[in-house]
Amino acid sequence: MLRRVLVIEDDRDIAQLVRIHVEELNCRVTLAHDGIAGLAQAESGSFHLVILDLMLPGLDGLEITRRLRARADYTPLLMLTAKSSELERVLGLEMGADDYLTKPFSVLELSARVKAILRRMEKLPAASAVDTHKILEVGSLKVDVDRRSVHVRGKPVELTAKEFDLLLFFAQNPGRVYSREQLLNHVWGYSHSGYEHTVNSHINRLRAKIEADPANPALMLTVWGVGYKFNESPATKA
Fold first, then answer.
1. How far, rounded to the nearest angstrom, does the alpha carbon of residue 155 sit from its chain's CA centroid?
2. Are residues 92 and 185 in the same domain?
């Protein structure tokens, strides 16, 4: 299957380099050289992957990520960042970017990251066929898998894309303990020592949104010295 990839990169030399090597992976590549044109392409087309630079004229990569993750349809995002932009890189991952590459990057690493994301996405149709309209209920928490919506005590809760992915992963694996590194691998799809704080911040935000008492969580439990687990039998007040 020929997969469609959108590359949003204002440096035309880098854009062409990415295009050449991504096309070698059986992909058809569309280029955009500023954030406004790139977002318009992403919203009007059907792409299997968007590769976007963090620093773009018009709209930057963070704003594009935020707007795309506000949409119902899910398109994986690979962010290109400079070495000095760690804060923005972390923000991008927390807003829903699936992975990142730091410039300058090797074409072998680019190909490996693209292939890894596309492989993960190819597994989703089978999972979606099983989970279509599936509702997960734990205590007062209700997760609609197909609609990617969450209700707590009957009220809707707004989650970011990655917050939902993390909550869904926990709800589908209740009682099992996961380290921060394992959660990075399963939910973010990458392993990078030093980014465990990304997991911590998502856990804290989820607790603030779904727990009756975030300081004494009943759903998302800390297993001291190991990681976290999702409670199989929370008290009804949760």
1. 24
2. no
